[in-house]
Amino acid sequence: MADRIRMPAHAQAAYDDADRERWVPETGKRVGRTAFERDRARVLHSAALRRLAGKTQVVEPGESPPDGRQVPRTRLTHSLECGQIGRELGQALGCDPDLVEAACLAHDLGHPPFGHNGELALDRAAQPCGGFEGNAQSLRLLSRLEPKTFAETGPLAGRSVGLNLTRAGLDAVLKYPWPRHEGVRTYGVYEEDLEVFAWVRRDAPEGRRSLEAQVMDWSDDVAYSVHDFEDAVYSGRIDLDRLGAPGERAAVLALAADRYALAPEGELGEALDRLLATEFWPKGFDASRRAQARLKNTTSGLIGRLCLAAERETAAFFGPTPGVRYAADLLVPRAARLECAVLKALTAHYVMGRADLEDLRTRQRAIVTDLVAMLAAGAPDALDPALRPDYLAADTDAARLRVVVDQVASLTDDAAVILHRALDR
């Protein structure tokens, strides 16, 4: 039976049957939920989302400040917080809130163990099969690997189609809606998954992201820049008083200019000064209950500041209800992007840039590299039962290596360490 539509009148007209279509048609679903509510539920109940609880965000899962009262964020908590931010921002712009939230919850599903450090190692190991990219892996997981829906008839008969999300749902996850090609570092689809990619992108402007994907992307930036900053302040790794020292300030601004924003350091300094001048900027954090409350107000204030800037800029250009999908773009003022870049640089300088982490990162990369080699040598028996049929059906060395990469990418940080220890005996 058809999904019931429950959206504002303008949104009902904006999302058509093609937006709600699934790669493999489904029948017999109970009435009472919209197609996008169902997308959100499928992601929320997926094993892939649960695994994010054991995957690195900035510091390792389980690493806590000395007092043990606060646990740093993981990929799971980040995704949940990103979902809340994206839901509200998308709804304010007239997007379907369940559609945007589903994309936010799903955007990191393909990330491997050990964060971007693990992604770098896995990309190197996967070069013979076309490389590894966390965003492309997310699409692969949603449309192939996550066990939920199988095609029973037609050209895809007998094949898993993952969560079988709607066209608009998969498109909203596509942060980089193009395949890998020369000169491009980030991409959203592997060669093996071009068939579903072509279906998702039918009639979409080439290389252009949907409004929902843009909302997801900005919500992701806001969530991790603000929340990672909060974690770093709470843990004592950022001493805000040190920012007054010229050397410390210069180091942060240089990092922001080099890694997070193509902007002069002077302009980034103005962004930092604007943040320091806000009424909610944390000062003199001592971990007391009152200081913790002030820090949470900082988090709320920063999220509101960055999201409202985008909401107002977009509404000012496109009108109060900009439209959905490709009717509008999310416009984020330059000032807001630079403030976001400064927040990222603060965490990168004081947390991720710590010298004592380099030995750990080296070991993590070695674990990922070894796992690919050891699983490939022991395949198919060494692989998870769910992946063995894929390996046996593969007809080239590259295709078989891709299956091995699928397994390594799915591992949590702890599972990678444990499996490495078991295979290395």
Can you walk me through this structure?
By secondary structure, the protein is mainly α. It has 3 domains: 9-114 and 135-200, Orthogonal Bundle (Hypothetical protein af1432); 211-357, no CATH class; 359-423, no CATH class. Helix content is 57%, strand content 0%. Helix 16 (358-378) packs across helix 19 (413-423). The termini are far apart.
CATH superfamily of the largest domain: Hypothetical protein af1432
CATH topology of the largest domain: Hypothetical protein af1432
> How helical, in percent, are the residues?
55-70%
- Shape designation: globular
What's the domain count?
Answer: 3
Largest β sheet strand count, sense and barrel closure: none
The CATH class of the largest domain, by name, is Mainly Alpha
Structural class comes to mainly alpha
The ordered string of helix (H) and strand (E) elements is HHHHHHHHHHHHHHHHHHH
Provide a brief overview of the structure.
57% of the residues lie in helices and 0% in strands.
Features:
0% strand; globular; mainly alpha; Hypothetical protein af1432
List the helices and strands and how they pair.
Layout: H1 9-14, H2 17-20, H3 35-44, H4 47-51, H5 75-92, H6 97-106, H7 115-125, H8 134-145, H9 167-173, H10 194-200, H11 211-235, H12 246-260, H13 265-277, H14 289-318, H15 334-352, H16 358-378, H17 388-393, H18 397-410, H19 413-423
Helix pairs in contact: 3-6, 5-6, 5-11, 6-9, 6-11, 7-16, 11-14, 11-15, 12-13, 12-15, 13-15, 14-15, 16-18, 16-19
